[in-house]
């Protein structure tokens, strides 16, 4: 099974951009304090190892917030990993499932299984 994004909620006061280099139709702007539910769940692309930000950007899914650009991917070992352009990291441990992503007011990301409230730091 794979990870899919079924909802993105932007709780910040700035617009965000979602991009996916593997599927241009997944790219979307989401306004401040609003949510986006894609017509087709967005597949989180797979990458192995621990790529640098520069290596991840052309392959990984991205969410640009006013504070950082976050690249994230399915690490193929029951987790979503990620890195921010400014060096922040994402680690969400969970078997593959439908996920929701929230952009917090401070521009950082929170991941959760679509039916739960688990968070990534």
What do these coordinates show?
The protein has one domain (4-113). It is built from one helix and eleven strands; from the N terminus they run βββββαββββββ. The protein has one helix at 53-56; strands at residues 4-10, 16-19, 28-30, 34-36, 42-43, 61-64, 69-74, 79-84, 89-93, 98-103, 109-113. It has 121 residues and is mainly beta. A hairpin with a 4-residue loop joins strand 8 and strand 9. It is globular and about 35 Å long. The strands form two sheets. Strands 3-2-6-7-8-9 form a six-stranded antiparallel beta sheet, with no helix packed on it. Strands 1, 4, 5, 10 and 11 form a five-stranded mixed beta sheet that branches. The protein starts with a strand and ends in an 8-residue tail after the last strand. Mean pLDDT is 92; it is low at 117-121.
- The shape is globular
Radius of gyration: 13 Å
Low-confidence stretches: 117-121
Give me the side-by-side strand order of the main sheet: 3-2-6-7-8-9
**Strand-residue fraction?**
35-45%
Count of discrete domains: 1
